[in-house]
Amino acid sequence: MAGGGFSVSSSAGTEFEAKITPIVIISCIMAATGGLMFGYDVGISGGVTSMDDFLREFFPAVLRRKQQDKESNYCKYDDQGLQLFTSSLYLAGLTATFFASYTTRRLGRRLTMLIAGVFFIVGVIFNGAAQNLAMLIVGRILLGCGVGFANQAVPLFLSEIAPTRIRGGLNILFQLNVTIGILFANLVNSGTSKIHPWGWRLSLSLAGIPAGMLTLGALFVTDTPNSLIERGRLDEGKAVLKRIRGTDNVEPEFNEIVEASRIAQEVKHPFRNLLQRRNRPQLVIAVLLQIFQQFTGINAIMFYAPVLFNTLGFKSDASLYSAVITGAVNVVSTLVSVYCVDRVGRRVLLLEAGVQMFLSQVVIAVVLGIKVTDRSDNLGHGWAVLVVVMVCTYVASFAWSWGPLGWLIPSETFPLETRSAGQSVTVCVNLLFTFLIAQAFLSMLCHLKYAIFIFFSAWVLVMSVFVLFFLPETKNVPIEEMTEKVWKQHWFWKRYMDHDNHHVVNGKNNTINNAAV
Ligand code: BGC
Questions:
Q1: Lowest CB count within 10 Å: 8, 72, 277, 422, which one?
Q2: Which ranges carry the Major facilitator superfamily (MFS) profile domain (predicted)?
Q3: Do the domain assignments include residue 86?
C-alpha cells in the first residue's frame, strides 16, 4: 500500500526543461497551508490548556489544583485527560497514515489532500463548538486524521510537481510553514486568552483558516502528472506536464515518469520490500531519526511552553508571551537551515546543534533544580530570563537541525521503489513518538521534575554519537546515486549493500534495486 511517490529528476542527473509556472507557485501555497495546519494544531493546545476558562469547562479538577496551590508545582497539570486532549490527534494521525498511503496511490495526491481538508474542517467545527470532553476529543481525532492524510500527500505532491532545482528548498519550506503555524497559534492564544469566557473557542476555531485554504487549494489544483500516469491516465498526465513545466518539450521527463511508474508498479509488496536487507540502512536511519527528533524533547516545549512557563512561576500572560518568543525563534532559525543545509551539510548542522541543545538543557535543569522546588516557584527575574534565553537557544538549534532534517534525510535517502513506503513509515513513527511525548510529558515533569531536562539531554548525547558514526553526509548527492556514493562507501552500512542485486535502468547511471519480493 505505498503512496507511490517518485522523483521527477532525471536519473542521469540532468535537468529537464522547466519554468517556474503559476501552477508551481500555487502548489507552494498548498504546501504552506498543509504545513500551517499541522503547525497550528501543534501550537494551539498548550496555550488553550493553560486558559482557566477552558479548564473550568472541561477539566475543573485541574483548575482547582492550579488555583489551590496545594499541589507540587511540577504536578499541577498532570492529568491524563488533559494530555489526551493534546495527544489524541497524533494517535489518530499515525493510524490515518496507512489509509493515506493507499489513497495517495489509488485516488491520487489531490483527492487525498481534499480528504485531509474535509477532515480538518469537520474537526475544527467539533472543537470550536465543543460542549463536552467527548466532542473535544472527537474533534482532535478528526484533525489528526487530517494530519495523517495531509502529511503523506502534501510532501509527495510537492516533490512531484516541483522542478528539480527547487525541490530541496521546497522540502524545508514545508517545515518552515509548520513553524509559522506554531507561531500563528501562539499569537492567537496570547490574544484570545484575554477574551472571557470563550477565547479558547476562538483559538480552536481559527484553525478553520488554514483548513479552508487547504481544501480550496485541493479543489482547484490539478493532480501531479506522476499520479495521473501511475493510474493509467497517460494523455492527461502528459498534458498536465506540459502545463506545469510551461513547455511542450516534456518528452524526456514524461518517458522517465512512465518508466519510474512501471518499476514502482512491479513492486507488489512495498512494505515487505522495505524490510529487505539492502534497504536496512535507510529504514534504520529513517526510523531512528524520527525517534531521536522527538526525544530531543522539542514538543515538550512546543505543546506545553505556556504550561511549562506557568509551572516556573510566570504569570499566565507572561507564559503566553514567552511561548510567542520561542515560536518566533523557531521560524527564524528554520530559515538558517534553508540557507545552510546545502552549504555546510547535514552532519555539521546536526552535530553543532547537539552540543547547543545539550548545554541549554543542562543549564535549564541546573537552574530549575536549584530555584524551583515543589512548593516554591520563586524563580526571580534574572533567573527567569536566563531560562527563557536557554529555551530559545535550545529551540534555535533544533530548528536548524533535527526539525527540518528529520524529514529531509529520510525523503532523500530511500531508493525509488521504497520511497513512498518509506515516507509512510517515517510519518507513522514520527507521529507515534510525538504521541508518546504528548501523552507522557506532564506526568514525566511531575515525577522527574527538573531532571526531565537531564533526561532529554542524555538522549541528545546518544543521538549526536549516532550522527557522528552512523549518519553519512548526503549533501549534494543526487538522489539516484545514494546507493553508490553514500551507502556503498560508508564504513558500517556498506555491509548491507549486496552488489549483485542492482541493475541498470534505461542505460543510465542510476541503480534501481530489483524488487524480488
Ligand atoms: C516536528 C514536530 C515539531 C516541529 C517544531 C517538526 O519537525 O516533527 O513534531 O512540533 O518540528 O517546529
A1: 277
A2: 27-475
A3: yes
Q: Is residue 504 part of a domain?
A: no
Q: Which ligand 1 atom sits nearest the alpha carbon of residue 299?
A: 10
Q: Which atom of ligand 1 is nearest to the CA of 330?
A: 12
57 and 212 in contact (C-beta within 8 Å)?
no
Longest CA pairwise span in the chain (Å): 74
Does any domain span residue 507? no
Q: Which of 86, 79, 99 is nearest to 42 (CA)?
A: 86
Of the candidates 511, 506, 501, 515, the one whose C-alpha atom is nearest the C-alpha of residue 479 is 511
Do the Cβ atoms of 399 and 495 come closer than 8 Å?
no
Distance CA 28, CA 34 (A): 10
Could you list the residue range(s) of the whole structural domain that residue 150 is in? 22-223+267-496
Q: Of the residues 45, 175, 437, which should be mutated to test ligand 1's pocket, given the most ligand atoms within 8 Å of the CB?
A: 175
- Evaluate the omega torsion of the peptide bond into residue 225 and state whether it is cis, within 30 degrees of 0: no
pLDDT tens track, the chain, 517 positions: 233 333 344 444 456 677 878 878 777 677 668 889 999 998 898 889 889 999 999 999 989 888 876 666 678 778 888 888 888 999 999 999 889 888 888 899 899 999 999 999 999 999 999 999 999 999 999 999 999 999 888 877 877 787 766 666 677 878 898 999 999 998 999 899 999 999 999 999 999 999 998 999 899 888 988 889 888 999 999 999 999 889 999 998 898 888 878 877 887 787 888 898 989 999 999 999 999 999 999 988 887 777 777 777 777 777 778 788 899 999 999 999 988 888 898 999 999 999 999 999 999 999 888 877 666 656 677 888 888 899 999 999 999 999 999 988 987 888 767 777 887 899 899 999 998 988 888 888 888 888 999 999 999 999 999 999 999 998 877 666 788 889 999 999 999 987 544 443 433 434 333 332 2
DSSP state of 511: E
Q: How far apart are the C-alpha atoms of 114 and 12, rounded to whole Å?
A: 34
CA distance 499 to 497: 6
Ligand 1 atom nearest 403 alpha carbon: 7
The span from the CA of 284 to the CA of 379, in Å, is 42
Contact at 8 Å (CB) between 201 and 181?
Answer: no
Cα distances (angstroms) measured from residue 135 to each of 60, 120, 139, 458, 517 = 17, 14, 6, 39, 45
- CATH no. for residue 455? 1.20.1250.20
Q: Which residues, at least 6 apart from 203, have a Cβ–Cβ distance to it below 8 Å? A: 44, 47, 48, 185, 188, 189, 192
Query: Is residue 228 situated within a structural domain?
Result: no
Question: Which residue among 45, 183, 299 is best mutated to probe the pocket of ligand 1, counting the most ligand atoms within 8 A of its Cβ?
Answer: 299
Query: Which residue carries 505532491 as its cell?
Result: 157
- Number of domain units in the chain: 1
